[in-house]
From TrEMBL:
This is Endoglucanase. It comes from the Bacteria. InterPro entries: CBM2/CBM3_carb-bd_dom_sf, CBM3, CBM3_sf, GH, GH44_cat, Glyco_hydro_b. The lineage of its organism: Bacteria, Bacillati, Actinomycetota, Actinomycetes, Micromonosporales. Residues 1-31 form the signal peptide. SMART domains: CBM_3. It comes from Plantactinospora mayteni. SUPFAM superfamilies: (Trans)glycosidases, Carbohydrate-binding domain. PROSITE patterns: CBM3. Pfam families: CBM_3, Glyco_hydro_44. Residues 564-717 form the CBM3 domain. Keywords: Signal.
Amino acid sequence: MRRRSILSIAASTLLVATGTAVVVAPPPALAEPGPALEVDVTADRHPISPHIYGMNFTDEALAEELALPVRRWGGNATTRYHYRYDTTNRASDWFFENIAEENADPGALPDGSSTDRFVEQDRRTGTDSVLTVPLIGWAPKARDGSCGFSVAKYGPQQRTDEWRPDCGNGVRPDGTLVTGNDPRDTSVQAGPEYVREWLGHLTAKYGTAAEGGVKFYNLDNEPDIWHSTHRDVHPTGANSAELRDQAYAIGAAIKEVDPSAATLGPVGWGWTSWDYSGLDQEECGRTGCWANPPDRPARDGLPFTTWYLQQMRDYEEQHGQRVLDYFDMHFYPQASGVAFGNGTDPATNALRLRSTRALWDPTYTDESWINTQVRLVPRMKELVAANYPGTKTAVTEYNWGALDHVNGALTQADVLGIFGREGLDLATLWAPPAATQPGAYAFRMYRNYDGAGGRFGDVGVRATSADQDQLSVYAAERGSDGALTVMVVNKSGVERSSSLALRGRTAPSTQVYRYGAGNLGAIVREADQRILVPPPVVGAPNGILPHTFPADSVTLFVIGPPSAPPPLTVLHRNLDRLPTDGQIRPAIDLDNPGRVPVDLSRVTVRYWFTRDGGRGAVQATCVQATIGCANVRQSVLALPRPRRGADGYLEVGFTPGAGTLPAAGKTGPVELRLTKADRSRFVETDDHSWRPAAPGYAASTRITVYLDGVRIAGTEP
């Protein structure tokens, strides 16, 4: 019989709170040991964009429930849409037909179009809109139901629309493509002037982006495969110059009408879009010329996306105007059965869960024909930093499949956590789950876990798992109330017990919310769980949360905001009467006028100064201390950029042996000395923390104090 782990025994002794009552938690069922988890609220702090929680074409009820941050009107049909006729051409998705959108009053168009209604729904739910504008140069000519490959005009074809048999798929019975058709069968030309007119209509009705109107515009949809999706009007692959020049022209038209709107491009379909233009993909798809694509010389040998970003940067440098705000690439996992697949095959389910590593992991080789390290989000950010700094990143289409199954919900929760941790700026799922499907609950865990608008935090912090394939973990602080939110996804397929270490934050207990295979119809509020306080040894975390994570579950811990910081004061005395000699001699005495004792190992103090020349390193020494120099740690750190009154600081910390600073107590003097290895002089009078030598100690606001890495007293330079 397997022995119970020490961790399981410890977990069984925890107390949990239910409402205001405190009860003993029942011993957990035997569980497999899980990986160690850790959250450090002082490390890797970065904003999480709310726009990563977006979808394409979400219905209003779900959008309202999630307070959906962004919603996209995209896809193949939106490449060719005419706002005056409220008509799209469905391209290869449906026999290249012009199909009019349902409209109660076509005579009122363009007012009341489907895109007007799309924007109006978003305004009702407080959602930012992404609309797709055409770069292809064509839009439907009327609400006339025409199609690109008429059988009467171009001859028999392999397949036709069963309801409109004159509309074919553009493939002859022998398998060859119909060529030489007339784009004007379905379309009229639509260039920058069309875009200016459409945006003029939108801004007149809804205001500019800055005024609450449409915030984002996609520069078409997957233009590098027009030769496939829209070959009735663009039979050859778009070359690099066309994709660039059209982005220039349409991006400038957008900015002319609404300078506050943001543009997203090049909106490539997937992995081959990174290196190859449409022309490359069309020709090499036929001939296998991937090692020597025809359009590469036009890019000076560069991959397409590298060249594209450089060209967008060059435009801004030449015209003083940015026409690309977001670097946007679509990504669908290419392994068989993953994207848009179901959750019925265990092997595919396991692949789906581990394939999210393609979004970030440099050690993961994609298990498809891609067969290399994708690192999608870091790759995007690195490419932008190298070629067009300041451009944001977006993935306006992705789908890991099985949204109707718990496996898809686990995967989707993992994807959203990765987007936040890695710093993606915008993402929209294609296509949205139904409100009752497990995939919708993955979004609820981040956007409405308690049914009352409870959200995952908006300031990401470091969260690590010893085995991300078993338990993945993501953490963030919530700006509205300071709560720490920690999301744990159990992808291992079995129940696991792990210990979550908290650094820089603790609390008596945490709320626990869970979604998983045990209840596919609701997020369950579990009993609150007490957080353990470990012994005060060197390197120990501030809190420990042992927990058993059910198989196939997503668990959210909501840890309340930190209590008010203790009102610590630094008393300072300058022991050096010569401010221009070879030493700095600050003495400090920490005063705690509050009512709560403070663990000194959580406290650091910074004395800010300038090195004032010299080649030797600055050395710090504890001369004497009431609490003993053995319990005082000191180090000198240089600032990456000098500030007024400081190019570095002396940081003073305390070992656990220093104990606690009692309420209404003091540490007693800690006398310190700074010297330079080359014995050169300091000039202290312009140092931020300096005060003239005097007989006694006085409170200083220029020496700063930190608790768990967060400043609680004093002013930095």
